[in-house]
Design goal:
Strand content: 15-25%
CATH topology of the largest domain: Rossmann fold
Order of helices and strands: HEHEHEHEEHEHEEHEHEHEH
CATH architecture of the largest domain: 3-Layer(aba) Sandwich
Strand order of the largest sheet: 7-6-8-9-10-11
Largest sheet: 6 strands, mixed
Number of strands: 11
Radius of gyration: 27 Å
Oligomer: single chain
Amino acid sequence: MKTRKSGLVEIALLGGLGLMAVLTLTVPQHLRDHTPDALLSLSVLLRDTDSSGWNVARQGMEQAADELGAELRFLTLTVQNDTREQEEILRREVEGGADAVIAVPADPEALHGVLDRLTADCPLVTLEASAGFGTPFVAADHAEVGRCLAETLLEDWDGGEVLLLDTSKACPEVTPRLKAALDVLTAAGVPAERAAPPDTWSDWRWVMAFESAATRQAAAAKENGSDSFSLYGVGSSTAITALLERGTISAVAAWSDYAAGYLAVEQAVEAVRNRPQTLTPLPFSIVRGEDIYAPENQKLLFPVTS
């Protein structure tokens, strides 16, 4: 009986040793097959000479990079909206080994054309303006932004011509926003003129701006002069929120810059790892001064970031 038990114990021991040997051979291979993805290098190309206007978006980018295993390199221009300089930076970053590029393009098609001529396989994701050709971009629905902003102005309009600030040379996304707004005003029988920001604003009772820099410029002209006009614009920065609160701006179209930055990095990482995602337009809200502290608007205008 003892002999039989001893035999069973020996068999069990041998079986256990054999299992350990199998695990020793297979587990390391299993671990090798599931090693973490390598840290990716993402270049962020801005069209501005400094990144201060992108602080909130940058926080979103950095949060996504930390979570998804990427490091970011932020690059600005020496001359605002210099298309050639941005093209050269793009070429340098791709040839220098960037895994993907996120860009706020000065000229979307020109930027994509440079990338298309390079031999390296480097995904491009754009913010604000689309580079076309199926390139992913993160932005609100531009036409819808213009339409909703014009409809908001119509709620207040009681006569007079509307000035539509055309800053599309610096910001390509202005074009579809302005066109949609003009269509709404024309259909309502409201006279409107599209023009660059004027030297004097005294001839206007109603002004629409379609990007944040033009919104701030018009607001500064209104506060620094004796002109009195109703201003409708775009943006969610601290400066624009303060202008909205003071009543300098009547209403803005606002969306989360933090979410935009996060989604841009997420899309770039997924493109590098061949896991492309479907992007939908960023949700936005029309915010008036009296609505700043509504819970849904506080998330847009006062983002809580770590």
